User: Fold these one by one.
Assistant:
Number 1:
Amino acid sequence: MRDDAALVDCRPGYRLVATVDQAVEGVHFLPDDPPDLVAKKLLRRNLSDLAAMGAVPRHYLLTTALPKSRGDEWLQGFAEGLADDQRRFGIALLGGDSTSTPGPTALTLTALGEIAAGTELRRSGAKPGDRVWVSGAIGDAFLGLQVLRGGFPQLAPEHRAELIARYRLPDPRVALGPRLVGIANALIDVSDGLVADLGHVCEESGVAATIRLASVPLSDAAGLLVADNPALRAQLATGGDDYELLFTAPPERSPVIAQLSASLDLPIVEIGSIESGAGVRLLDADGQPVALASGGWQHF
Amino acid sequence: MRDDAALVDCRPGYRLVATVDQAVEGVHFLPDDPPDLVAKKLLRRNLSDLAAMGAVPRHYLLTTALPKSRGDEWLQGFAEGLADDQRRFGIALLGGDSTSTPGPTALTLTALGEIAAGTELRRSGAKPGDRVWVSGAIGDAFLGLQVLRGGFPQLAPEHRAELIARYRLPDPRVALGPRLVGIANALIDVSDGLVADLGHVCEESGVAATIRLASVPLSDAAGLLVADNPALRAQLATGGDDYELLFTAPPERSPVIAQLSASLDLPIVEIGSIESGAGVRLLDADGQPVALASGGWQHF
């Protein structure tokens, strides 16, 4: 860094949005994971957090704690991953810090975005009568991790590869988040799992939610696995690492959401509704409550 | 965190200043170091970086990666240290992330400050003819680490305790930094060591510096050790972890610097001058160049 700290310009009428995430070897990634993907996933998890406020990403700061066993090759791959995604998402490295460590590789990334003051989307805005919407597909990252561990040998190689890619490299919905300003009442990204994250919205908003499990969107690969094993569907809704956006909006905004989905070429589907009360209920195709083993998802 | 990311207000006409530092067990602190001091030192290193831009600290984000062996007691001490220093320095925790780790405790802290746009102080502003000034005393942290390792048994217990305290708990010059706006041409904090950090200023400014070693300010304890062993004086100038402010300013600003020193009750002494050229020269009391073993300082 050419100075002790980095300068960040703030446009008049805008606020900065700040978020930080970690990636620790053995917790968030495996020692042999490709370093460019480790870099991108860490960055994209943060970009997903910014999108979940409706913010546009601008800058980031990075720290690396690397054991001596991590050679230059690893670091070069890591840097190439960051450079790729800087271009893709139009963000710049502001500064950072690097150190050696006697332990596993430990990385942190602080992302800064901006948003017009007063337009920030929060978890706390859901209202009874809102519908619940989710982007993309749910459960692929959960399945991708199982595939990496040798699960689902019956799946075709291309489907296995797709699920692994969705686990290793999320596609944060940076274009969708800012477009939800003026549409969504509450917004969150799905990182802990659909049910757990909707639970956060309910808690912060003081409301309840009901989800129709059959409406939760699945990829082709996930759909095949669920066809074989219908009980898997509820697991996918409690998986995690999806980095899709989950939001609530009044029913009359359905047409504009459909337009937005078409213009971004990104599926956005209605999966349930908000009511007064507390907690998240999942209903099966017959309208019967589905029991959940756990409300969330733990890192391996 | 109640939302995915934290909002930061920017006052019109101001910029944000961002910096990040890490503390890894076994690199930046020892396993048995008191947790409140580990917290405060990490925070204060960042505050020193903000002061070195002339910025006023406002917010911070924190990540913790903790092994299971770190019990609640350690975390409570760590949190108490942060709470103390939040009050002392008038800053607020914006958000963060915590995880477990199979390795040593690893902490990062991102600090955000603000400064009126256009008044930022940089390393690159030093001009030939400037004088070089430094706050406080140099070398205590270096000596404190030696004392912790059993060095300097001849020192009185109170002096040993003072040096250890200066190593464990820097006193970042947060009041001085912003007051140097309009006075200093270049500013940096002394973290790598006086010579190395002045070297950064010279490199970024395209100038040379000459320091009179006898003018470098020492604490009473350091002065006693240097009286016993004059060769130690040059080591102190290449030590590190001082977190004093080092700046250059035109000679005619000496009176206002003397006033500032008095009003802050903080010694600020002139130790040398800036010339055209490159590099840092140290002169002994006879005006002879002092050879340096190394230009900087390494963590243990």
Number 2:
Amino acid sequence: MKFTCSQHTLSKALNTVSKAVSAKTTIPVLKGILIKATEDGTLILSASDLELSIEKEIDVNVESGGSIVVFAKLFSDIIRKLPNEEILIEEKANCTLLIKTSSSEFTIVGADPEEFPDIEDLEDDSNLISFNKEVFKNMIAKTSFSASIDESKGIIVGVLLEVNENGVSMVALDGFRMAIAREEMASEESGESMKIVIPAKILNEVSKIISESISESEEEDGTISIAINEKKAIILIDSTKVVVRLLEGEFIKYRDIIPSDSSTTLQVGRTALQSGIERASLLAKEGKNNLIKLTIDGNLITITSKSEEGNVKEEIIMEKTGHDLEIGFNSKYVLDVLKAVDDDEIKMEFNTSTTPCLVKPLEGRSFEYLILPVRITSTY
Amino acid sequence: MKFTCSQHTLSKALNTVSKAVSAKTTIPVLKGILIKATEDGTLILSASDLELSIEKEIDVNVESGGSIVVFAKLFSDIIRKLPNEEILIEEKANCTLLIKTSSSEFTIVGADPEEFPDIEDLEDDSNLISFNKEVFKNMIAKTSFSASIDESKGIIVGVLLEVNENGVSMVALDGFRMAIAREEMASEESGESMKIVIPAKILNEVSKIISESISESEEEDGTISIAINEKKAIILIDSTKVVVRLLEGEFIKYRDIIPSDSSTTLQVGRTALQSGIERASLLAKEGKNNLIKLTIDGNLITITSKSEEGNVKEEIIMEKTGHDLEIGFNSKYVLDVLKAVDDDEIKMEFNTSTTPCLVKPLEGRSFEYLILPVRITSTY
């Protein structure tokens, strides 16, 4: 194997595939990146931690084809620190690799490419569904934070991605809150459907790759495509292929949890509410459940909290229909929602002080958040 | 005590004095900030960890004077998170403090100001020496990183600040390297002299306060002043007074260590050398001493390093007078020096492979760095 390529292009590609390298793996070859040069002038970089595999193709000048596995961290560090000029990379005897520029010469130890796991290829008859990059990325940002981070909780560490005749939706929940994001489908093809659950932390890596591809691409309305291959999803993002192991089993029947009506509805400024809750949280660290109390009375939300260090009262003006109410929350869950939303104004729907609060946009149903209240004692 | 003040001004002042609050102190009152409002419209904020004390004055609208100690972290967090508007602060019964804006109302628990340690005042006959802010800050940046970080090493955890008829100098050393920065004095007053040793980590905090004062001030050539009061230095930085406990004892006779001549002198581009050493260091992690070898031959410096993961060779063009030489270094010590210097080109002076290397500017003596070599074995 012998090829030359631009430092900048190779360094960016390594940054992308490195997201699939596990630092903690006990399988030595998985600390590596497989680099494969083909005679037609393509370099294929691959990494996998078995849950997530990433393969990226870049154009290089190949003198002779071949492949080798290199330690991901060392190889990426070397390439990143080289000046932005043409790099010569050549396989030498005993599985070593020469990396050469005008003033630098590295020889690093590689590993046998035979040991590297195969990464799924798209099958010829695969049914690809396309999504707008920005839309897909925003839906991840609106939902993935609500998934459980407790690996023992099974399927709820994942985000449900559902495509049907109504459009596309993502859903995540952890037992204390639930997030739903919905969009019309970008494409008009009918009959497309999909229902898969992707681990939230892997979906966040996919989101980063999409962000990188958006910033690199000149196209305004780029798309990604997803195909399902048995228990894996193959996600195509420009020249990057991401293979994700799906979570198996039935997702929670989340539609049953959403309350169908409410006795109190507020319309409130999002940033004012967020600032007020952030300040009130300063005195809500006690006992780790970040308890704040919302008193909904007339056209004011009064947020109160107290600890041994003092107490706080914040007032926010809003519009209300329905009853007055007192309700307690873990401030973190409310803040997570307010930070995930862009809208200037939001709608909050309540029933009683022990039933969940629903957060929605003023119009439409592009997002819905359900937040469980915390019971407040009479002495609070 | 009752006063109103701008959120922005108070928050910045708290940020400054908080640098003297120790998170680890066992004396509860030292987790606090003393706030004292005087009838003439001044708010004095003070904090101290006994090693370092900071006192800052700001203008506020005082309705009634008084003083209280507040928990530094909570009070700073509250003020920082309030909107930039006028804040009312009022002492209430039982040592509590009310903090009020148009929509927020905090009541926090304070502590008795009587328990707070006194902070030295400048004496009437104090001899103040002035330094240009930028110059003083740059001298700290050029030297303090070379001081020992091992608290058991005594005086070498400090930076020597010396003022005499030749100007001002700062010196720091840790047994492996030494840094010297020298400047002409800004003021022309004759007969000024000073020789003190300030703990490096405290000098770094002083540097941050100077940076803040530079960014806040419209003055181009601002100065700070230092007076010595027994075992303390009192440093005046605009409206901030910093009191520092000095290190006692005799500083190392550093002038004796500087070699007076050299058998090899190089002139080399600083950033090229830095990049080359940074890359070579990628393979120099073995055994924690970051060993790199410099081979000085003709008009080339060849930097080599190796580990189990591979080996590297970097070539840098330079101008040389004197003998060729092979010498080993801990790359960290060389990189620290190259990062601290701004000059495009530097001079490096060597004698043998077991004697220190001296790094200097091409002209003048505004800095001198001495770096001890690492012995390289014949098999390297």
